[in-house]
Design goal:
mainly alpha; 10 helices
Length: 246
C-alpha cells in the first residue's frame, strides 16, 4: 500500500478528508475509498482499510456530538437493530471488481450531494419514526455498508433529513454511531471470511485521526468551511467518474 508512487500526496489529502467527514458526523469511508481509487490502490485492500479508518474517525465524531447533547438513542436503535447483522452478512460477501466499482460510484453521488449541502435543509416539523421504517432503512443500508466497505452514514443522514426524522446535528450524531457499529460488524464479517488487514493501514488510521479529532470538535460546535467542502466534492466527482469508466 505504501509503495504507491504518489503516497505522500495521498497522506496529505487523507486528514483533510477525515476532517470534513468527521465535522458532519461521518467516518469518511466513501471519501477514503474514492481517494484509494484515484491513487489506484489494490481493490482487495480498499474495503478493510476504509472500514478500519471508519471505526476510529466515526468513533471520534460520535464522542464530540454525544458530548454536545445531539444524540437520539431511540432513533439510533430503530436503524441499528437490522443494520448490524446485515452489515456482517455483507462483509462476508465478495463482489466482482467491476460491479464493486459501479456500486461505489453510485454511493459516492450521495457523498457529493451531502458535501454540497443538497440535503442540508432542516425543519421543526420532526416526525416519529416507525419501527418497520427503521428496520427496512437500517437493514438495506447496513447490508450495502458491509458489502462495499462504508459505514452507511452518507446515506442515512440524507434519509433522516428528507423524511424529517431529526435535525442536522441529531442526524450527524445518530449517523456517527450507526457508522461505527456497521463498520465494526462489516469488518468482523470480512475477517471471518479470510480477509486480512495490512499493517500499513494502522499508519493511515493515525494520520486520519488528526483530521477526525479536529473535524469532530469543530463540527459539533460551529459551522463547517464550505470552501473545503467544494474542493472535496470536486475530488469525489473525479473519483466517481474514474470508477464509472475504468
Amino acid at each position: 500500500m505504501l509503495q504507491n508512487e504518489n503516497i505522500y500526496l495521498f497522506l496529505l489529502i487523507l486528514p483533510i478528508v477525515s476532517f470534513l467527514y468527521s465535522s458532519v458526523g461521518h467516518g469518511g469511508a466513501s471519501g477514503y475509498l474514492a481517494l484509494m481509487a484515484l491513487f489506484s490502490f489494490a481493490p482487495e485492500s480498499m474495503k478493510p482499510t476504509a472500514l478500519l479508518l471508519n471505526i476510529f474517525v466515526a468513533g471520534i465524531a460520535f464522542y464530540y456530538y454525544y458530548r454536545a447533547g445531539h444524540f437520539n438513542k431511540k432513533l439510533f436503535l430503530a436503524f441499528a437493530m437490522a443494520s448490524i447483522p446485515l452489515a456482517y452478512i455483507g462483509g462476508t460477501l465478495e463482489v466482482d471488481a467491476s460491479i464493486y466499482k459501479k456500486i461505489l460510484a453510485v454511493l459516492l453521488i450521495f457523498a457529493i450531494l451531502k458535501m454540497l449541502n443538497v440535503f442540508g435543509r432542516e425543519t421543526d416539523n420532526i416526525k416519529q419514526i416507525k419501527i418497520w421504517q427503521g428496520l427496512i432503512v437500517g437493514g438495506v443500508i447496513g447490508f450495502f455498508s458491509g458489502l462495499i466497505g462504508i459505514g452507511g452514514g452518507i446515506i442515512l443522514t440524507p434519509v433522516i433529513l428528507l423524511l424529517h426524522w431529526g435535525k442536522m446535528k441529531e442526524a450527524a450524531a445518530v449517523s456517527a454511531l450507526f457508522i461505527w457499529v456497521n463498520s465494526a460488524s462489516g469488518l468482523i464479517g470480512q475477517l471471518n471470511s479470510g480477509v486480512t488487514i495490512e499493517k500499513a493501514s494502522f499508519l493511515l488510521v493515525a494520520i486520519a485521526l488528526i483530521g477526525g479529532v479536529l473535524g469532530g470538535y469543530y463540527g459539533s460546535k460551529i459551522i463547517n468551511n464550505q470552501r473545503l467542502r467544494y474542493i472535496l466534492s470536486f475530488v469525489l466527482i473525479i473519483a466517481c467518474a474514474k470508477l464509472f469508466f475504468t
